[in-house]
Amino acid sequence: MRPFAFSRADSVDHAAHQTAPTAAFVAGGTTLLDLVKLDVMRPTALVDINTLPLKRVERLDDGRLKIGALVTNTDLAHHEEVKAHYPVLSQALLAGASTQLRNMATTAGNVMQRTRCPYYRDPAAACNRRAPGSGCDARDGINRMHAVLGGSTDCVAVHPSDMCVAMAAIGATLTLKGPDGEREVAFGEFHRLPGDTPHIEHDLRDGELITAITLDAPLVPAGSHYLKLRDRASYEFALASCAAQLSLDGELIGEARVALGGVATKPWRCAEAEAALVGQPAEIASFERAAEIALADARPLAHNGFKVTLAKQAIVRALREAARCAGETQEASA
Ligand SMILES: Cc1cc2nc3c(=O)[nH]c(=O)nc-3n(C[C@H](O)[C@H](O)[C@H](O)COP(=O)(O)OP(=O)(O)OC[C@H]3O[C@@H](n4cnc5c(N)ncnc54)[C@H](O)[C@@H]3O)c2cc1C
């Protein structure tokens, strides 16, 4: 392991002035320390942010829910507001990693986690994301786990988060604090598509700290579901996942939100599929049409063609369950 300086931030302002591009914040450490040990990340300074006052979840007057950057994945999944108004987020969090990891992992750390592409995690392999200009061994390598949406010639690595898929469907805003002050970024614009700069993964500037993530007000009356399809039933990343939310207007769909995980280079909101659902009967034929639209631009690689079918099935099943829940909510409020 390479030597690095270690310090503890004693205030948000202090943390937000760690401007060295090679400095990294430590939250739960469950991604960062792995990658440092693998020699994939090489920070010269680690700044522990665990004592900062960023552990609150609070309902705002406008109905949105503000989540502190250091709220753990466990605490968020079991928070009463989340279980009551954003069950899709609770389900997504509980589908991720293991109990022990969720106890350590934080909300901001989850947003910032890196791809699990084995070529990214192996410094001996060519990877434009880790070492710009070195190539992409995944394109012609073993790419069963890789992206069918949002990839480029330079990178086809999947964004691995479950939590982020639910947040993409719900809609959210990140609050960032840096040496130049505070700013907000829409969740959907935070993660970047790889294009020809896959090493630029997100819209966080040097020294900036994520201080909070604020969820949009919940859809009402609505139903939602997170479905994760994977090689084994627990402690495994998604091959395909879907976060779905629907509100009903009688038998018809009022609003729809659909996002995919496990198949794309960033948490993947399916805006065209959502638009096609609005005003349609909440039935399988509508869900299947939406799934076809969502995967219309899929570009499978040699070993991951099955993900196109799997993602479509995830969409149909997640929407079916979301519609069932929305129907129950509608009946209860009639
Ligand atoms: C074995 C294993 C299995 C897993 N399975 C899953 C899974 O199935 N689904 C899933 O979604 N995830 C999974 N994960 C990933 C896990 O969710 C992440 O490791 C975790 O969420 C990262 O959070 P952390 O607080 O530990 O981040 P850290 O490791 O502390 O930090 C990660 C990155 O975020 C940066 N960072 C942290 N906080 C901030 C902040 N406030 N502002 C700016 N930058 C910040 C750090 O500098 C670092 O670059 C798995 C991880 C492991 C090790």
Automatic annotation (TrEMBL):
Pfam families this protein is in? CO_deh_flav_C, FAD_binding_5
Q: Which segments constitute the FAD-binding PCMH-type domain?
A: 1-220
What keywords are annotated for this sequence in UniProt? FAD, Flavoprotein
Query: What SMART domains does its record include?
Result: CO_deh_flav_C
Q: Which SUPFAM superfamilies match?
A: CO dehydrogenase flavoprotein C-terminal domain-like, FAD-binding/transporter-associated domain-like
Record flagged with keyword Lipid biosynthesis: no
What is the designated name of this protein?
Answer: FAD-binding PCMH-type domain-containing protein
